Amino acid sequence: MGERDDPFVRVCVHGIAGAGKTTLAARLADARGCARLELDGLYHQAGWRPIEEATLRAEVGAFVAGDAWVVDGNYRAVRDLLWARATAIVVLDPPRRVVMARVGRRTFARLLTRRELWNGNRERWRDLLSRSPERNIVRWAWRGHALYHGPLADEARRSAPHARVVTVRSRADLEALVGAVTPR
Q1: Distances from the Cα of 21 to the Cαs of 29, 56, 132, 156, 176, in angstroms?
Q2: Which one of 12, 53, 131, 152 is least enclosed by Cβ atoms within 10 Å?
Q3: Residue ranges of the domains in the chain?
Q4: 3: buried, middle or exposed (CB in 10 Å: 19+, 13-18, 0-12)?
Q5: Dihedral angle computed from the Cα positions of residues 102, 170, 36 and 140, in that order, rounded to the nearest 10 degrees
Q6: Which of 130, 107, 114 minimizes the C-alpha distance to 17?
Q7: According to CATH, what is the number of the domain 10-180?
Q8: How would residue 65 be classed by pLDDT, with cut points 50, 70 and 90?
Q9: Which positions ≥6 away from 4 have C-beta within 8 Å?
Q10: What is the pTM of this model?
C-alpha cells in the first residue's frame, strides 16, 4: 500500500486554538505508531520566550525528514517545510461556539490547576484579562476563527497539491477521519 492509497503517513493538523489539534494529532500518531511534534511546545520556550526562527526551522526540518509523523500547529514560518513533505493536511474547522466553549473551559481549568503547558509555562490570569489577542487566548480564538474557516484549506490545496486536504467540521467528521487511518 503506497501513500496514494493511505495518505495518512505524514500529517499536518491545523486549526485555531480550541479546535482540537493536539488531541487529534495524538490520536493519529497513536493509531499510526509514529512520532508526533506539537509546534507550540517547541515554539514557547521557558518564560514564554519564542524560539529563534532559524532554530524552529532547523528543528522542524529535522523532524519532518522522517518517514512517518504527525505535526500539529499553525506556524507560517515552517509551513513550507511541513507542506512540502506532508501526505495529508487536516484543517480543523468546528463552529465558533464549539471552539469558544473549549477554549473557555480549558483556559479556566489550566488557570485554576496551574497546569504546565510547555517548558514550565502556565496560563496567567493577567493574560486572560488582557485586551490584546496576542496575550489573551480567548480573544485570539475569537479573532482567528475565520482564518481557519475555508481560507487555510484552500491555501493548502493550492500550495500542496500532492497532499490530501481534509476539513473536519464536526465530531462525526473527526471520527470518520480517525477511522480511516490504518495502523502501521
Answers
A1: 12, 19, 23, 16, 16
A2: 131
A3: 10-180
A4: middle
A5: -40
A6: 107
A7: 3.40.50.300
A8: very high
A9: none
A10: 0.90
